[in-house]
Write the structure tokens for this entry.
Amino acid sequence: MAGLRAPGVPSTGFTDSLDFLLTKICIALYKYTVVMGAGKTFRQGQILRLVTGERIANQEDLRRRLATQKMRVTQATLSRDLQELRLVKTQEGYKQAAALPEESTPLPPLARALAEFLLDIRPAENLLVLKTPPSGAQPLAAAVDASKFTEIAGTIAGDDTVLIITPNKKARESLQCKIEALVK
């Protein structure tokens, strides 16, 4: 290959090796960015294809499915992509915000989260346990925290359970009544 040699310069083993190495690097970069689909537009297209074609319960599930297509994505990049694509997490998996049915009167965030994710309420002394489908606890806990109920000392969310801690049984009963009223 004479790609990097000036005209009239004789070939040496070193420049030929350098030409070969640079060509290999350029081909590898091209394959990585274009053929393998590492570009943002292609990746986001694949995300849309996956979420519209099948149920994707959470970001880890989506990350794994992208990895099977040879696309390695960090959680931070995936989170940004989901936000840019206006994908929201529902009980049925991720959906485009535009594809969600319109509500005649929008519900407050907590009422909406309760309607979408709450399966059961279980009181226990000064604790209130909210059961959700898998991957539903985090968005429900975020909505509970955002509601700023004075009765709440703290919340903990797992995959399908939100634990709400109140200072005493009376505060838990008051909070339980407020949450049940939002569900009705």
